[in-house]
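Deviation from plan, reported transparently: magnesium ion complex.
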Amino acid sequence: MLLQVESVVKRFGGLIALEHVDLQVEQGEIVGVIGPNGAGKSTLLNVIAGVHKPTSGSVHFAGQLISGLNPDRICQMGIARTFQIPHPFNRMTAFENVLVAATFGSHQHGKTAAARAQEMLDFVAFPVDHQTAAHSLNTAQLRRLDLARALSSQPKLLLLDESAAGLTPNELIELQQLVFKIRDQGTTILIVEHLMRLIMQLCDRIIVLHYGVKIAEGTPAEIVSNENVTQAYLGEKYLL
Ligand SMILES: Nc1ncnc2c1ncn2[C@@H]1O[C@H](COP(=O)(O)OP(=O)(O)OP(=O)(O)O)[C@@H](O)[C@H]1O
Ligand SMILES: [Mg+2]
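Because the crystal trials were delayed, the predicted structure below was used instead.
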């Protein structure tokens, strides 16, 4: 088991964002986390990445207890993540942004950080000049930059938070191909997403959160026919 989340509770004051959530991810899987707004999806990624310490429960990665470690340490151990809202260094170029991240992971494979940054921008098929200033990138370009940044630490597990938000249909197809390409080169993926069609096509397995509680888990086919899930999504704009 690559990732094991056991009975994780996360409280923010009186609000329970995660309530005894269990999740296992095996090496090589693409696992999806879905659920209505405020369900606790980003909080779950933040707990795994070390941004939030769980109120109780534990997270193990590759057999080691990681809950309680800080985000830098967890990143060094092989977990990288993208952000629901990417925050690049706006005054730097795209290349410099990835270079900063690659510098932290540059001990790997003996490559220079610059070579690694270049390789990652090529891998994500970064669509504009690498010297473009980050502040002038559009949504799709920013999401690719954020992916290149995350991949530059050569993660074993990549956490994606709504990478599809704001993308056009064509960009969505490209994103899907890119996620498969990342998995095929050996990175396991845990993806939070609102777009059902995308998640159904991408994932081997899906878990559904609703008000911090895991209400379902299964293959895409099992999830679409699960009554708890259809109920939870009633009135939501992204119906199954
Ligand atoms: N740092 C925080 N402090 C206080 N409350 C928080 C914090 N982060 C999240 N919450 C609350 O926890 C709950 C879960 O939030 P979270 O962002 O994990 O939901 P989500 O499933 O990612 O939603 P969305 O689909 O809108 O991104 C929400 O009620 C949110 O307001
Ligand atoms: Mg979120």
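The chain has a mean pLDDT of 93. We consider this an acceptable substitute for the interim report.
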